[in-house]
Design goal:
The structure holds 3 protein chains of 3 kinds.
Chain A (H helix, E strand, L loop, with lengths): L4 H19 L3 H22 L21 H32 L13
Chain B lengths: L1 H21 L21 H14 L4 H9 L1 H29 L1
Chain C lengths: L3 H23 L8 H18 L11 H20 L37 H25 L6
Helix pairs in contact in C: 1-2, 2-4, 3-4
The chains are: A mainly alpha, B mainly alpha, C mainly alpha.
């Protein structure tokens, strides 16, 4: 059971993110939950490409040539940058919502403004 | 009622994901397609990159040669997404100042 | 504005973080790292300097227009570097193994790492590094600049 500990960690992180997104009313906490789900997916992608005993795919003074798969790492890099961009976007929307409604509670942000 | 429904659905999703994570070999074991941590099944493309990446692009870092050379279009889209996100952030926050006046 | 100790340490660490970030960007094709990571590190330095001093006090130090210009220039340089290989295909690495700039021939195998390799990859790394530095820095600047409008 312990040998696939990364998958269990992925499930725990994604579960915590889903819990935060479903149960929390604060918009900032919802954004934090979304970031947690993103982190879980990134960890899942990277752990899919792992080979037993492999090293990072870099040849500079490498101890061996048995390497892990590089493509999931490259796609995860893309995913991380896009995650940063979407998080910044969502936080700016949170700022705008707080300015217009005076609250970050998701239940109270439903009235039409004037 | 609503909270109970939420809790049950969340619990079902979490339990099924945890079951798959603990026993990843149950799905597709009959055809040999199951998921095993540490032994990826299909790695032809990655082996090609690992063996030919240095000769073709000259970079020691295979991840960089994939990000910027083999999959350059991906990176172009990614840079565009970052640019657009910065633009959107600026526009959304600029609305604050206009509303105040 | 934080206390004097924090400000002194921040202005000292700012240069170190900048050097480390540009090191990561420049060695992106040899060591772990690359344009995105190095740009993020440099943006962290900008965030440090903004937190230590107040936003109003760094107007002459880190300008928002400078960062937006860096972002645009980085994206443009990236696209132009991609287009420069249009003779064969888009994003073709025409400088690799050519003996020109960044064109040292590399064979398969473990080597100590030479900076003069990898063709257009270091140029793209630098372009993306500048773009990410400008993008993340300008996000921080936007949030802090418009924070006073919220209250």
């Amino acid at each position: 059971m312990l040998f696939n500990l990364p998958f269990i960690t992925v499930v725990i992180v994604i579960g915590l993110g889903l819990y935060a997104m479903l149960y929390k009313r604060n918009l900032i906490k919802i954004v934090i939950g979304l970031s947690l789900v993103e982190s879980g997916v990134n960890l899942f992608l990277v752990s899919l490409g792992y080979r037993n005993g492999g090293i990072a795919p870099i040849y500079t003074s490498a101890p061996s040539t048995h390497m892990v798969l590089p493509t999931p790492q490259a796609l995860t890099l893309t995913s991380i940058v896009i995650g940063v961009a979407t998080t910044a976007m969502l936080l700016s929307f949170c700022v705008v919502i707080y300015r217009n409604y005076g609250t970050l509670d998701a239940r109270k942000v439903r009235r039409l403004r004037e | 009622m609503r909270n109970a429904l939420l809790a049950i659905s969340l619990l079902i999703v979490f339990a099924s994901l945890l079951y798959v994570a603990i026993n990843p070999g149950d799905f597709g074991a009959a055809t040999g397609e199951h998921l095993v941590f540490g032994e990826p099944k299909y790695s032809d493309m990655d082996d090609y990159f690992i063996h030919n990446g240095q000769n073709q692009t000259g970079a020691n870092n295979i991840v960089t040669s994939i990000v910027f050379d083999y999959r350059g279009f991906d990176t172009l889209g990614e840079a565009s997404v970052l640019f657009t996100a910065v633009l959107g952030t600026g526009v959304a926050l600029r609305l604050l100042r206009r509303d105040r006046k | 504005m934080m206390s004097k100790i924090v400000r002194t340490q921040a202005s000292f660490l700012y240069t170190l973080i900048l050097i480390f970030g540009f090191y990561i960007v420049a060695h992106g094709h040899l060591t772990p790292g690359g344009g995105f990571q190095g740009g993020a590190v440099i943006a962290t330095g900008i965030a440090l300097i903004v937190v230590a001093y107040k936003f109003e006090n760094i107007k002459g130090w880190v300008k928002k227009s400078m960062l937006t210009t860096a972002e645009s220039i980085g994206l443009l340089a990236f696209i132009i570097t991609g287009i420069s290989g249009i003779g064969v295909s888009f994003f073709y690495n025409w400088l690799a193994n050519s003996g020109l700039l960044f064109g040292r021939v590399v064979h398969y195998g473990i080597n100590p790492g030479y900076i003069n390799t990898a063709g257009t990859l270091p140029i793209m790394n630098l372009a993306v590094g500048i773009e990410v530095l400008g993008g993340l820095g300008v996000i921080i600047m936007y949030f802090l600049h418009y924070a006073k409008e919220v209250k």
